[in-house]
Write a structure and sequence with these properties.
210 residues, alpha+beta, Jelly Rolls, four-stranded antiparallel sheet, 3 helices, 24% helix, binds 2-oxoglutaric acid, binds fe (ii) ion, oxidoreductase, Oxoglu/Fe-dep_dioxygenase_dom, vitamin c, Pro_4_hyd_alph, 2OG-Fe(II) oxygenase
């Protein structure tokens, strides 16, 4: 993977900041170069094949439970230094973090991200990404890793917008969906094929004023 750097004043990142400020969400259909998307998809599949992905839980800490009736995906956290494609993604997200802080004064301090795989038929019921006992998740950013997703394969991310409308994001490879974690309820609809993503949350210090 060639080293990739996007400066924090790249127009794509400024557009995301502007969308978040104006609407609370943003969809960038061509966010990642195809080669990087393919490498990240390969890493997600590799982790699946070696059993590194595990059923995702609901909630935090000791209250965490696996409930397939609420969410049916398997996940594995991405840490720096694990793979070149992951590091390239983290570098991009660092530029996005700097852009959001500079443009929107969000005070985002860190990113947590995991690979996710939804088997066919799996879904994630409507929810908010902010935990009741921890308000540090501020911006959610979901990157899709699915090559040539067809419109009839389902698997949309359905956003419930503040104005009462819904917006469906097709999980097409290279597409990034961002939204304010506390403000936009959303759900993942079931798909007829395996659905891969890399989901990140920019966090502020827990307890910081909104
Ligand atoms: O994969 C998606 O489209 C969204 C996943 C999600 O909502 C979550 O992991 O909290
Ligand atoms: Fe979510």
């Amino acid at each position: 993977m060639p080293p990739m750097h996007i400066s924090s004043d790249h127009p794509l990142l400024l557009r995301i900041a502007d969308d978040l400020a104006t609407h609370g969400w943003s969809q960038q259909s061509i966010f990642l170069p195809q080669a990087l998307t393919a490498e990240l998809a390969g890493e997600c599949r590799r982790r699946s094949a070696t059993g590194e992905l595990t059923p995702a839980g609901i909630g935090r800490g000791e209250q965490q439970q696996v409930q397939e009736g609420i969410r049916g995906d398997c996940i594995d956290w991405l840490e720096p230094g694990q793979c070149a494609s992951g590091d390239a993604y983290l570098a991009l997200m660092e530029s996005l973090r700097q852009a959001l802080n500079r443009e929107l004064f969000l005070g985002l301090e860190e990113l947590e991200s995991h690979f996710a795989l939804y088997p066919p038929g799996a879904y994630y019921q409507r929810h908010l990404d902010r935990f009741r006992d921890d308000d540090s998740r501020t911006v959610s950013a979901v990157l899709y890793l699915n090559e040539a997703w067809q419109p009839d394969e389902g698997g949309e991310l359905r956003l419930y917008l503040p104005d009462g409308r819904v917006h469906d994001v097709v999980p097409q490879g290279g597409c990034l969906a961002c939204f304010l974690s506390a403000d936009i309820p959303h759900e993942v609809l079931p798909a007829t094929r395996e659905r891969l993503s890399l989901t990140g949350w920019f966090r502020r210090r827990a307890g910081a004023p909104r």
